[in-house]
Design goal:
By secondary structure, the protein is of the alpha/beta class. It has 15 helices and 17 strands. The protein folds into 2 domains: 94 residues, no CATH class; 384 residues, Alkaline Phosphatase, subunit A, CATH 3.40.720. Strands 1, 4, 5, 6, 7, 8, 11, 12 and 15 form a 9-stranded mixed beta sheet that branches. The chain has a two-stranded antiparallel ribbon with strand order 2-3. Strand 2 and strand 3 form a beta hairpin. The termini are far apart. The N terminus is likely disordered.
């Protein structure tokens, strides 16, 4: 057999397409280089104190209000009618069937089934007004109540999902099914970072000890979907080693590691030129990032120079890696060092039968540190350009799940039709409550804010037009907000 024919017979499908698309590969490589920040961006240079690393050269679309985001995502869905949405009528109707007119056209989880005949449940703890704004906050959250005048409460959130994983995915990626890029990935792709020593997008998780909440942290909550893998979030673990495999083996010097990486990079560059596979570019950049993080992460996690007053402000768990308090403090230290998006996820809010027990623990674990983060950012002058978001995937029903005669087992089911999210800093109006629910906290009656509206607003604060931040995949230009979303301008400064 002729050698040429033999070679063609053994040519793999990947090699065939890689070699036959040389011209396309060159164009793709040029695009990759462009995305990695090799083109100038005059607008970004005028609005950023630090040089930007990566991102699209034409972004931001306009001057941003915020440069960083810390998203305190409360997995499991906090109960709005027990924490932020004060409804005196719940006390009046406590123990009586929910009026049918509030339930028309509504669907609930299979745990509720048909809601007709369910009994109304009063708020577990009393509410009070706080600050000059007079915001209503439950006794459950005294520390968050103390910063009420810094917060923008959005009390008219509503969503489409009635189950946790789809609901979380919808908030973070704009789709209930996994596979789309998440918020942090979109921002990393579009805006890059302000440092090359740490990832642009970091995720951290925690859970209240002893909770019966079975929420799982899926990797796609911080995934890059169809964007190149370099844009996915890097998960920082609790414990002494926040990033796995970052340390060199014993006896390997820094110089030897550098030599190895240089040789490996040359081999990967050869393959990148052959196939223009963006995941090869990801591999190159991530090796380099890991090398730099070997020096930056120990400094990041060294709390010895943090003032005692600051540590005390975050609460007793602040020095223990993996706790919510530790992750909140670490969030501030990350954005100080130029990280674009920090996603702190805390599970335990799924109180189907534990409102009178576990809700107390959950609030105790998160209240002080959440408020401390906002205070800490403000006193350091970082709150103006850092957007802090606190909220879950949906709310919880104003009616009871369980037997009303068995108080230790009171609970509430999933409720997508009305719930509360609060934001602070980053160009949001402080000391306001936006939107309103009906007198039972069941439905939104004023200024509804859909999940896509929330996403469009967040991108807007970062200087991005949500309709123009797109990525072409499988022949279609995708965006975070799909084909929906309106910026909620009334909550912007």
């Amino acid at each position: 057999m002729h050698p040429k024919v033999e070679q063609q017979r053994h040519l793999t499908r990947r090699e065939f397409f890689g070699r036959s698309a040389c011209g396309l590969g060159t164009a793709a490589l040029a695009l990759l280089l462009k995305r990695d920040g090799y083109a100038a961006n005059a607008l970004a240079a005028t609005i950023a104190q630090r040089p930007r690393v990566g991102g699209l050269p034409e972004l931001p679309h306009f001057a941003p209000k915020a440069k960083h985001v810390i998203y305190l995502f409360q997995n499991g869905a906090p109960t709005h009618v027990d924490l932020f949405d004060y409804k005196p009528k719940l006390k009046e109707l406590h123990g009586r069937p929910v009026p049918n007119e509030y339930l028309e056209g509504k669907r609930f989880s299979t745990m509720t089934g048909a809601p007709q005949g369910k009994l109304m449940l009063n708020s577990i703890e009393p509410f009070a007004q706080h600050g000059q704004s007079g915001a209503w906050v439950s006794k459950f959250l005294p520390h968050i109540a103390s910063i009420a005048d810094e917060l923008c409460f959005v009390k008219s959130m509503h969503t489409e999902s009635i189950n946790h994983a789809p609901g979380i995915s919808f908030f973070l990626s704009g789709a209930e099914l996994p596979g789309r890029p998440t918020l942090g990935s979109w921002l990393s792709y579009g805006l890059g970072s302000e440092t090359d020593n740490l990832p642009a997008f970091v995720a951290m998780t925690s859970i209240t000890k002893g909770t019966t909440c079975g929420q799982i942290f899926y990797d796609y909550y911080w995934g890059s979907g169809f964007l190149p893998g370099k844009y996915q979030g890097v998960k920082f673990r609790g414990g002494t080693e926040p990033v796995l495999y970052l340390s060199d083996p014993e006896g390997l010097s820094r110089e030897t590691r550098r030599t190895q990486l240089d040789a490996l990079s040359q081999l990967n560059e050869m393959k990148l030129k052959d196939f223009a596979d963006p995941e090869i570019a990801t591999r190159i950049s991530q090796y380099e990032m890991a090398y730099r993080m070997q020096a930056s992460v120990p400094d990041l996690t060294d709390l010895s120079k943090e003032p005692t007053a600051i540590l005390d402000m975050y609460g007793p768990g602040v020095k223990q890696p993996g706790t919510y308090a530790y992750n909140c403090l670490m969030s501030r230290r990350l954005i100080e060092r130029g990280v674009r998006f920090v996603q702190v996820m805390h599970a335990g809010w799924d109180q189907h039968n534990s409102l009178t027990t576990e809700l107390y623990n959950q609030c105790r674990d998160t209240d002080q540190a959440s408020a401390a983060l906002v205070k800490d950012l403000k006193q350091r002058g970082l709150l103006d350009d850092t957007l802090v978001v606190w909220g879950g995937e949906f709310g919880r029903t104003p009616f009871i799940q369980g037997d009303i005669n068995e108080r230790p087992r009171w609970g509430r089911d999933h409720h997508p039709y009305a719930f509360t999210v609060w934001m602070a800093g980053g160009g949001t109006k402080p000391g306001i409550s936006y939107g309103e629910t009906d007198d039972l906290g069941m439905n939104v009656i004023q200024n509804p804010v859909h999940v896509h509206d929330f996403q469009a607003t967040l991108l807007h604060l970062m200087g991005l037009d949500h309709e123009r931040l797109t990525y072409k995949f499988q022949g279609r230009h995708f965006r975070l907000t799909d084909v929906h979303g309106e910026v909620v301008k009334d909550i912007l400064v």
